[in-house]
């Protein structure tokens, strides 16, 4: 498995790596999956505009967050990129309950416009066209599948369409899908697998192109959130706000599907 140095990418850290937002005297901490960065920024702004306090927000990989919480990290709410990590925390007695599925994510391919790789917008089900795109890439960014649900979905997709062998030696791995996206946006990788929500980011659409991928070729990315035991009222308020009409409208705007009444 290749890894990729991020030292060259510090110039865009203001966009992708604002992972910690500590505010003096704050004690309520929220762990948010990296795929949610843009959508959650909008949701959090609406939450604050409703008269609620600004909380400490940390973005990263769901797997890392789950491990940290298991080891006592002081997070109060986990907004995950999948179901497995929150449910594992619940089984281990770390959460108030099993939580809620708040969104269903979608997978996309991303390339920088200057890469020379062009997407056919009708190619999401065309395996030959996807093979052409992958063949043209020298490096393909992907989130680590053992840590990040979108990385896991990308591997599932490649194997489902029979292109894993073509792609596997070109893969460069990032700790989370936000970092994988940054590799593409900075030109460190020619192509990448990302969340549709990140591909639609206003910060990216000027210089990149994306192709939404066929959802039947990877398992549904059901994203669940859970309150950690002992969470203060502010965390509970945000948990409830994530289920509000306003939050759901923002999630749709950023390319997520809604889970309906799924517990």
What does this structure look like?
The structure is a single chain. The protein is α/β, with parallel strands linked by helices. Helix content is 35%, strand content 19%. The chain contains eleven helices and ten strands. The strands form two sheets. Strands 2-1-3-10-4 form a five-stranded mixed β-sheet, with helices on both faces. A five-stranded mixed β-sheet has the order 7-6-8-5-9, sandwiched between helices. Helix 2 (37-49) links the parallel strand 1 (29-33) and strand 2. Residues 3-25 have low confidence and may be disordered. Pfam families: SBP_bac_11. InterPro entries: AvModA-like_subst-bd (IPR044084), ModA (IPR005950), ModA/WtpA (IPR050682). Keywords: Metal-binding, Molybdenum, Signal. GO terms for molecular function: metal ion binding; molybdate ion binding.
């Amino acid at each position: 498995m290749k890894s990729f140095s991020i030292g060259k990418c510090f110039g865009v850290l203001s966009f992708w790596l604002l992972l910690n937002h500590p505010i003096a005297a704050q004690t309520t901490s929220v762990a948010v999956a990296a795929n949610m960065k843009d959508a959650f920024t909008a949701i959090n702004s609406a939450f604050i505009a409703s008269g609620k306090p600004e909380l400490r927000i940390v973005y990263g990989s769901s797997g890392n967050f789950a491990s940290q919480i298991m080891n006592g990290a002081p997070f109060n709410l986990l907004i995950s990129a999948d179901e497995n990590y929150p449910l594992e925390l619940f089984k281990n007695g770390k959460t108030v309950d099993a939580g809620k599925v708040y969104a269903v994510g979608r997978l996309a391919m991303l390339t920088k416009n200057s890469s020379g790789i062009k997407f056919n917008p009708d190619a999401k089900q065309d395996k030959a066209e996807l093979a052409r795109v992958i063949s043209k890439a020298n490096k393909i960014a992907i989130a680590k599948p053992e840590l990040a649900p979108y990385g896991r979905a990308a591997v599932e997709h490649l194997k489902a369409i029979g292109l894993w062998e073509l792609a596997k030696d070109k893969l460069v791995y990032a700790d989370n899908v936000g970092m994988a996206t940054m590799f593409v946006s900075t030109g460190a990788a020619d192509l990448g697998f990302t969340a549709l929500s990140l591909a639609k980011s206003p910060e990216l659409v000027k210089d990149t192109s994306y192709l939404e991928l066929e959802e039947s070729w990877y398992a549904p990315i059901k994203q669940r959130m859970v309150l950690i035991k002992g969470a203060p009222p502010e965390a509970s308020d945000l948990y409830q706000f994530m289920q509000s009409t306003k939050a759901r409208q923002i999630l749709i705007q950023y390319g997520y599907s809604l889970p309906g009444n799924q517990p």
